[in-house]
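Exercise 7.
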Amino acid sequence: MFEQFYGFGRPPFTRDISTEQLYKSTMMEEMVGRLLYAAERQLFTVVTGDCGVGKTTMLRCFISHLNTSRFSALYLADSKLTPRHFYKGLLEQLGCEAKFYRGDAKRQLHKEIELMRQIHDLLPVVIVDEAHLLDKEMLEEVRFLLNFKMDSQSPMALILVGQSELWDRLKLQSYAAIRQRIDLQCKLGYYDRSQVGEYVNRHLEYAGSDNEIFSDAAVDEIYRFSSGAARLINKLCTHCLLYGAQNGKKIIDDHMVKLVIQGELA
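Solution. The predicted structure, written as tokens, is:
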């Protein structure tokens, strides 16, 4: 495998890198800071970004920064999430068996959240990933869920995370009532050329490399192919390292990157 050829102690471009070892761009640090503010203030927040820019990675980083003695994070990611399964999923994470009917389950969740706040002094942070897949009924249920104590108090920090189309939908007039409840709206963008270079070097350092394996021109091609999307950077770099190891190349140049793109990823 290429890890041995390049002297890596571990694979450099995988999804399971610990949050402490992640490349943290200014953009990601700002996003995590906003979400921590939303958690503290118990705000309704929508985070969007195109496919592959690192939304779930950013969430991992955010959750790792939450003080577990003050916050309780509840995470859902279900493409077919219905109101009943929404309440069931949250209540199960709280160690409860959800009541069958939606209204009963919602009241049950509010009660458990009150107990969490009053007895354990914990603030709930509910994260719904892949939220661009939610239908209108589920998005409306989110609005009803936030109606708490005659609107004088938010029952939780609620963070919806999805692809850019989520915000495009929420801008429609038919979603105005939901949109007006949103406290913060954040958009995660692409890395620029210099950040792609920093990203690649950070991941090589994580793997245990002391050398710059990708030439500057190679990084130019990686940026051009990926447009700065982390998922595509990982994919192309891994293919390039496999190609380089199989062909005995310690340095990967732009010509090799182009060959990999044309032969394996085009």
